[in-house]
Amino acid sequence: QYQHDVPEKQLDEQLDFVVETAVNKVGVNVNTASAALLEHIAGLTKTTAANVVAFRDENGKFTNRTQLKKVPRLGPKAYEQAVGFLRIIDGTNPFDGTDIHPESYDVAKAILKKANAEKLSLGSPELEEALKGLNAKELKEEFGIGQETLELVLDGLLKPGRDPREEVAGPILRSDVLKMEDLQVGMELEGTVRNVVDFGAFVDIGVKQDGLVHISKLKKGFVKHPSDVVAVGDIVTVWVTELDLKKGRVGLSMIGPENK
User: What is residue 117's DSSP assignment?
Assistant: First the structure.
């Protein structure tokens, strides 16, 4: 049932989209990320992602974001698009470990100066205290920036290594389910909706591969579109309906056995 409902190509594209959405929200550590992960970053291609890794292997770790400009075939436009998602942890510039875009570094420096906080560590309680005294409206007017840029800069200063996924209350994952082999048909689990597509919803159930709840298994009765029933981030109860270990696929249902 599962694999006949969803064409292989469509499923692969969808899984790519899930990864892409995640890495472009969270960013990646450019000194540890694989080429396969880097190619999902906005602005990078399969070739330029491989070139980033080759450059790193040849020249050692990146110590600042500017060095990325030396990567073969990574042009100015692609650099500008990708650089905000490529983090350098413990590099020469603390801003490089945040999701602040280099275009906003001057604003970030000016904000720290205004708060007399240039010597304080990013993410420290002392810095948070110092920035509390600033007026958002004044900052926007003084630096000619919008609300979104201001929020991004302040977020980068206050939560430098932030992963937005950590701030969402998670589902209660079963301690006996750590890998696909631990799953059994009929098992009841809690999971987080990671993506909603025309044919159903992908749910993270704590194993390597997200499971798919087909549109017909979201609830009893007719469903026009999965987004009418679930949204990304929802915590849902699901039942395992199908397992294909060879293909790494998990079929799920949100309709409990008692409601069938």
Answer: -
Please state, as a whole number, how many other Cβ atoms lie within 10 Å of the Cβ of residue 200. Answer: 26
Q: Which pair of tokens denotes residue 260?
A: 């069938």
The pair of structure tokens assigned to 206 is: 């704590």
Confidence of residue 12 (pLDDT cuts 50, 70, 90): low
For residue 66, the model assigns a pLDDT of 97
List Cα–Cα distances, 47 to 15, 43, 74, in angstroms: 20, 11, 9
3-state secondary structure of 142: helix
Contact 91, 64 (CB under 8 A): yes
Q: Which are the contacts of 62, defined by CB distance < 8 A and separation ≥ 6?
A: 30, 31, 56, 68, 88, 91
Whether 97 shows a pLDDT value over 70: the answer reads: yes
Domain(s) labelled CATH 1.10.150.310 in the chain stretch across 2-17+27-165
In angstroms, rounded to a whole number, what is the distance separating the alpha carbons of residues 58 and 50? 12
Total Cβ atoms within 10 A of residue 213: 29
What CATH number has the domain spanning 180-259?
A: 2.40.50.140
pLDDT confidence of residue 99: 87
Q: What predicted TM-score, i.e. pTM, was given to this entire model?
A: 0.60
2-17+27-165 topology per CATH: DNA polymerase; domain 1 (1.10.150)
For residue 165, what are the CA distances in angstroms to 15, 169, 205?
18, 9, 15
Element containing residue 253 per DSSP (H, E)? strand 249-253
Cβ(227)–Cβ(183) below 8 Å:
no
Question: In this structure, how many other beta carbons lie within 10 angstroms of the beta carbon of residue 118?
Answer: 10
Range(s) of the chain covered by CATH 2.40.50.140: 180-259
